[in-house]
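Response to reviewer comment R2.3. The reviewers asked that we include at least one raw input/output pair. We reproduce the pair for CCHC-type domain-containing protein here without editing.
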Amino acid sequence: MPTYGKLDSFDESEDWTQYVERMEHYFNANEIDEEDQKRDIFLSVCGKNTYKLIRDLLAPAKPGTKSLADLTKLVKDHRDPVPSEIIQRFKFNSRTRHSDESVRTFIAALRSLTEHCNYGDTLNAMLRDRLVVGIKRDRIQRRLLAEPNLTFEKALEIATAMETAEKNAQDIQASGTNGTFQKQINKVSKSYTRNNSGNSKQGDCYRCGGNHLAAECRFKDAKCHSCKKKGHIAKKCRNKSANGNLSENHREFKSRFKPRAHFMEQDESSESENDFGSFSFWK
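Raw output as returned:
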């Protein structure tokens, strides 16, 4: 017959009641029904410290003369004396949900505290009250208080549903924010690529409008006659008025310039550093 599971020695950090429960499951899984056999298996695997404790508590009697139930109760009474019901109820009624604790984790902690409270048939009512009072989430608490004929099962259902909905809403909002931010990044990236790509179209150079990289523009050190700032020419100046007129200084300069003969203004692209063009006079 195959053996299911493994019965380890008792770890001092483990709860004794849980160890006994695991041992009973082991016996059931492996169909071990003989009481003497159960006792002998327990004494052989419980560990040297636990075995010594049992011998000391039974002396001068021997462990092999007692039943398994007597031995486990002996250790339990020694290690885990029955706690005060008043203290256990005080701990239960003082427990509130931690900020990083889910509703179901909070309920599990409450159930653990009721082990020695002896609430009996009033257990669910006490759990309901503690859930409502100790939830520490105003929106959920108001919703629970507004529910008529609230039972523990209904309170748990509402609280967990609202908690899940709130978390899902936060995830959606966070996703939307990240999407907007990513769109802004993409927009800036496209603008940078357009202004700095060697394959950019005519007019993409923000300094002069030519078909080349802005970093390679011959007007990168030029002084704008419109805004007096360095790095572009007046044709591409962003400080012009909305109707595209030149600055006051520029208009004043042109009004003072009075050629003595007809002139023809050349293309601005042939300028060296000014954007007025050079003039050719004809007699």
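The longest strand covers residues 263-265. The radius of gyration is 43 Å. Further pairs are available on request from the corresponding author.
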